[in-house]
Amino acid sequence: MKPVPKPWMTNLPNYEPGRPLEEVARALGLDGIDDIIKLASNENALGPSPHALEAMRNEAARMHLYPDGGCYYLREALASQLRLEPSHILPGNGSNELIELLGHVFLSEGDQIVMSERAFVIYKLMAMLFKAETVAVPMDGFTHDLDAMREAITPATKLVFIANPNNPTGTCVPSDALDRFMDQVPDHVLTVIDEAYIELLPPEEQPDTLRYVREGRKVCVLRTFSKAYGLAGLRIGYALGSDELISLLDRARQPFNVNYMAQVAAAAALQDQAHVEATRRMVRDGLDQLAGALDKVGIRYVPSCVNFMLVDVGKGREVFEALQEAHVIVRPMDGYGLPEYVRVTVGTEEENARFLDALVDVLQAV
Ligand SMILES: Cc1ncc(COP(=O)(O)O)c(C=O)c1O
Fold first, then answer.
1. Ramachandran region of residue 170, left (φ > 0), alpha (ψ -120 to 50) or beta?
2. Domain co-membership, 200 together with 137
3. In testing the pocket of ligand 1, which one of 16, 42, 90, 96 has its CB within 8 Å of the most ligand atoms?
């Protein structure tokens, strides 16, 4: 006799994350990680804000204490910056945790989620965890087709996921298209707008989705400290929504889901908008650098508005493996139905140049 898992759990695929530096060093038989660059997980090449680093050093000796499970100071800081109430905000262990909490609150067998065919794969994996069905809607090129997504909604649809900007395509939907979607989406649906990369857009190009929260629409906006704020290792994101929604998500979380160090660092990082601006500049310059060099050698790519880019290399997985041999980690895209592509994160000027040189060498060889 063995313990019997729920039958659908044995069929769940594993998520394939960007390969960690240490894992690649081990695979390549290297002594350390210094000669490898990771452009695989859309992290911030500038690192954490110096303010966050200082705040973490100052609090390190207090890590024997449990964190404040209610994240009081962080919620206050976010509320004041976003012009919302603390009751509209729930921090989580990365926005990934919040996606799972949405599943706990809303999804059961027979329910549906609607998403784009090529949007963040975690939505689908999470739906599978709850035996819900994923309706994957074809994109308009590489951009969400919001009209088609609205038309795909059925009485069984509980959640619609709109990653904006979208991972892995790096594309955005404009504010007016979002407004139209929000005006027309049926009442029984919660629209989840995943804004993991939103702070990387120039402020004037960021759609005002917080307005939907203030207006009490059926919306959940997800954000993270993993990208523009450079704190991916700490695992901290947050959900924004009505008091009612936040209170439901709050019931589904673990008592201390956001660790002490993450709360301290996030609150400090939030005050350092100069670091976010420097990150935005690095990303703009890096996108220009990558696009200019790829254009010059005739390699196609999907124009991006954020800190990663889909590059059409022909045989994505082969090129990914060969780049890794050259100590450059990118992400293969076959799991997203894009076997010709790799996704590369925008790094520093030097990292981007190393990627470009390695790519040209690899493409000559394959
Ligand atoms: C669109 C999107 N949403 C959410 C996440 C998860 O972010 P977090 O690190 O906050 O869990 C990612 C991470 O890559 C992402 O690309």
1. left
2. yes
3. 96
> Which atom, in ligand 1's list, is nearest to the CA of 235?
9
> What does 153-176 look like in DSSP terms, one character per residue?
--TTEEEEEEESS-TTT-----HH
Longest dimension (CA), the chain: 63
3-class secondary structure, 135: strand
- 1 pLDDT above the threshold of 90: no
Q: How many Cα atoms within 13 Å fall on the side-chain side of residue 113?
A: 30
Report pTM.
Answer: 0.97
Please state the domain count of the chain: 2
* Dist CA 322 CA 186 (whole Å): 47
Q: Is the per-residue pLDDT at 366 higher than 80?
A: no
Read off the CATH number of the domain in which 349 is found: 3.90.1150.10
Q: State pLDDT tens for residues 51-75.
A: 999 999 999 999 999 999 999 999 9
Question: For ligand 1, what atom is nearest to the CA of residue 224?
Answer: 10
Inside any domain, residue 2: no
Nearby residues of 350 by Cβ (< 8 Å), 6 or more positions away: none
Of all protein residues, the one whose alpha carbon is nearest to atom 7 of ligand 1 is 95
